[in-house]
């Protein structure tokens, strides 16, 4: 105990801390949550707005030979964080995007074969336009058309998010800098040079912008970490981060769905995705002075290496695309059946796998963030007694790697039980439900850096007039 300092508590591996609930703790908390400097405070302001409108028209009353639809959408973004998240120090950032599409659906072979084809065009203000054609076939076999086979080929794309494009956030150890062209000049910071660097002739401070992170030579973070241990310049990897562009995917999917003669509902599916320009984040380092290069006869390159050794460098997290091959694949199996009177049991398994050779792009952070194995089982009876029903679920997923700009780490394996009971009151045209999530379980994680998920309880009253 610290004599004379009753307002402090201590941790075994730390120094004095204010005791929660004390006046000193409350005052410090109030100061921290009002300070937008994330090296000292925790205040975010986000008054951003999104305006979206879409429309669709089905020509089935006009065109008879096939079902044809035409539609479109428009979306406008207004980013307003007052400089606490985005680089909107001098006012809100605005940009727009729109899309148009058409779809044709036609049945053949006594309505056993259904064809669906579509194409969509999307244009964002900050990216080139993207076409997304898709095609699928569903065939219903059997006398009762109860064996449904499906196959599809789809293309899609993913634009960078608002934060991927316009974030400008100093986290202390590194800075997040969005990849939009007009964001680079808005992110500007002044960094202090060490006394050792100043002795080498560097100024006391240097001014850096987003252009020091993109479209110029920098070192990858893993290679600088290796250099710090070996002091061998050959370990350094020089990269030139390009501005982010839309990610594209080609998706192949097959499936089967049926109800067998003995009442077993079967649902099988499998997919394989091929990504081009897979989009995520990477971490790179820029020396405050000197140059980035491999020519050790160049004095500026040697000066840059000295800057790394002196700790005179800036770490950036950038938003870009990998040039390496990225694929994902998976499958799912679902079975359900009434096992006794109105009791229905169901179980499904899903497998998801991501293939990316980290050794070929060590600084790239893929962020797949999906468990490889997931299982869900359920047991329910909607007519256990008159107007009374229930449902029980058990969910399990194995551990997996979580990667994000905020934190990385392993998400532990977890088993979660959920339950629901419902009671119908026909005279009131109502159904009352009581449900619980994570019943009997411990708090569990789904995101590294976020809070744990505990028990959740819900009471609802549904009226069907």
TrEMBL record:
Protein name, entry field: TonB-dependent receptor
List the lineage, top down.
Answer: Bacteria, Bacillati, Cyanobacteriota, Cyanophyceae, Nostocales
Q: Which organism is it from?
A: Desmonostoc muscorum LEGE 12446
SUPFAM superfamilies from the UniProt entry: Porins
Any one GO MF term held by the record is:
siderophore uptake transmembrane transporter activity
Q: Name one GO cellular component term.
A: cell outer membrane
The listed locations are: Cell outer membrane
Keywords, A to Z?
Answer: Cell outer membrane, Membrane, Signal, Transmembrane, Transmembrane beta strand, Transport
Q: Which domain of life is it from?
A: Bacteria
Presence of keyword Membrane = yes
Its membrane topology: Multi-pass membrane protein
Q: Which PANTHER family match?
A: HEMOGLOBIN AND HEMOGLOBIN-HAPTOGLOBIN-BINDING PROTEIN 1-RELATED, TONB-DEPENDENT OUTER MEMBRANE RECEPTOR
Q: Does the keyword Transport apply?
A: yes
List GO BP terms, alphabetically: siderophore transmembrane transport
